[in-house]
Amino acid sequence: MTTSEALQKAPDTPAASPRQGTQLDHLAALYRQMLVIRRCEEEAARAYAQGKIGGFLHLYIGQEAVAVGAIANLKPEDYVVTTYRDHGVAIAKGMSARAMMAELFGKVTGCSKGLGGSMHMFDAKNRMLGGHGIVGGHIPLAAGAAFASKYRNDGNVTLCFFGDGAVSIQGFHEGVSLAALWKLPVVFICENNEYSMGTPLSRTLSVEDVSQKAVGYGIDRDRFFADDVLNVEHRIGEAVKRAREQSLPTLVEVRTYRYRGHSMSDPGKYRTSDELDEHKKRDPLLRAREQLEKEGFGAARLKTLEDEVEAEVLDAVKFAEESPEPDASILEPTTYDGPFAA
């Protein structure tokens, strides 16, 4: 199969929108998205250990409720910009599990034809603007996307995700300062997972409450824990509404936790097993599943949903394994073709 044939055969069907059906169905759809992300990340970790994925791999396990809850507020036309811990955000924004997994495997059917890899998930059709490897460097880019929306008066909103380690970076100040000055429709979401790589908050931040930094820029702020995906959706929804209707930015600190190390090369020995176990008791996936059971979603429906997710994820892995690697046919168009090509 040639590169062009593989690209034509690669389906790019995102998961069903979590905006349909009753309130219980809505929670089930959010749970489904989180489960797809969790299982994709687990299979990615397995593939990495088997040598099928190279380079860096930063997993989103434990933080799924942040992306899923936040992006549930968006329209398809809205933009998302995020960090190198981007697989879950990409899926929540509409990227298919196949396209994401194939990109991790470096295959031509991936979202960036296998040329971007783990840290550079990009999907222009779904307004997923990356995946960026430089800590804090993408925050001004999000301000730029929001500026374009305000200039065009198109009513679109930009979500910008970043970690707690980025708030001490110059790019954070530049992006938030300009967004405040120009009153841009952007929501800055700090995914505070309590560790900048392997360094705890007490050694990286003079003020633990990241949201307080909003006061210095004269913008609205919020701060909460991401234990409940519906609460994430509601709280981020207020900021999205402010951005869309008033063209005003907001800084939101969402306290979350990653269950794995910073990357696959990090064993995470800087924290105790008791700390990890305590956080796992508040797992947003577990909480969503328990709520579905409690409110009568039904064991049979829940099993069907989970079986569908398992089939989707295993299909994505199989698809990635069987897809071809990029060949010389894409060298010229990916190097020279584009908006500045002659």
Tally the helices: what do you get? Answer: 13
Please indicate the count of domains: 1
Average pLDDT reading: 88
Across the major sheet, the strand order is: 1-2-3-7-6
Tell me, what is the CATH class?
Answer: Alpha Beta
Number of strands: 7
Structure description:
This protein is α/β, with parallel strands linked by helices and 342 residues long. The chain has one domain: Thiamin diphosphate (ThDP)-binding fold, Pyr/PP domains (Rossmann fold, 3-Layer(aba) Sandwich). 45% of the residues lie in helices and 9% in strands. Strands 1-2-3-7-6 form a five-stranded parallel sheet, sandwiched between helices. The longest helix is centred in the first third of the chain and has 27 residues. The chain is globular. The N terminus is likely disordered.
